[in-house]
Amino acid sequence: APAGHFFAGKSYAEIYSDIRNSIDLCHRDGSLKRGVASDPGYYIHQDKNLVPLLEDLRVSGKKIFIVTNSLWDYTNIVMNYLIGGKTGAEKSLDWLDYFDVVVTGSAKPRFFQDNQPLFGVEPASGFLHNTDEGNPMVDLDSAEDDLESMEPVPAGKVFQGGTYKIINRMLQTESNSDILYIGDHIYGDILKSKKTLGWRTMLVVPEMEHEIEVLSRNAGVPQQLFQMRRKRDAIEDQLQRMSWKLNSATGKKDASFTEEDRRDLEAQKQALEDQHAVLRDEHSKTMAKFHKEFHPIWGQLLKTGYQNSRFANQIGRFACLYPSHVGNL
Q: Which residues form a coiled coil (predicted)?
């Protein structure tokens, strides 16, 4: 059915509520992740430069970690595809060799400020181990598994839940500023980790690649718009002075200001008003065309007219870096 059929007769608040509830539901019931897991290649961009990047970081002595809200089963599917292009029965745990710590089910942004129960994850089975008491916990869907066959909690690298302190402890960092955290969510990843912990942050903004390409292709347009606006402002100043002179001379009944002077000034004023109208229309059309180059509705991502957008202000405050892709690191 056409999109309008679903939204007919609804207010913007109701439409927002419906969309928000639908998004929340597909996350809660697992339908979104089941769809991705069934065909990772359809939904996930596999970057051939990712593995070389991870190898270079490890060779240079850097320690690498993952903190994700996804649970282990989905994390394992995604990382197998990203690192080795593996799906289905081909999946393995080889991708873990590139990372020192993997935290799943982190519940960000709570991970950056609240204490949560921390469990060790047994990668081969997905079993959870209570790291406080040492008692194993079993996935409810696997109740028939033999608990006695489970090995003691290993000094592993895969966890679920917990808090940022596990990262500091496992990586043995001396200062929070030693950590560069890379994420794609301004609030869930970047704002809290920067504001609360003082981590270095890198926000992945995929739209930046397109934004930069459009700016390069229209390199002279911003200056053109600036000059048009400057000229428009100058005409507005002239019009204001002419209006003041006309009103002042008429009110004071200045004898030196003749009827002919008044007609000449009004004619000049009308000519400037016509020029201003043409310039304003040209400026408006040029601005609209320029913004549609970025996005047909929202325009430039980091601008609202001539002002920085709210998103741009948040990036400026909380993101140390903001490339279009993690590979830009």
A: 255-282
In 3D space, the residue among 70, 72, 76 whose CA is nearest the CA of residue 91 turns out to be: 76
Can you tell me the distance from the alpha carbon of 190 to that of 204, in angstroms, rounded to the nearest whole number?
A: 10
Q: Which of 225, 221, 261 is CA-nearest to residue 245?
A: 261
d(CA 181, CA 112): 12
- Opening angle at CA 186, ends 311 and 165, nearest 5: 150
**At the topology level of CATH, where does 47-172 sit?**
Rossmann fold (3.40.50)
Per the omega criterion (within 30 degrees of 0), is the bond before 154 cis? no
Contact 80, 91 (CB under 8 A): yes
Can you give the pTM of this predicted structure? 0.79
pLDDT value, residue 129: 85
Residues of the chain with pLDDT under 70: 1-4, 131-155, 250-255
167-199 in b/e burial notation, b at 16+ Cβ within 10 A?
bbebeeeeebeebebbbeebebbbbbbbeebeb
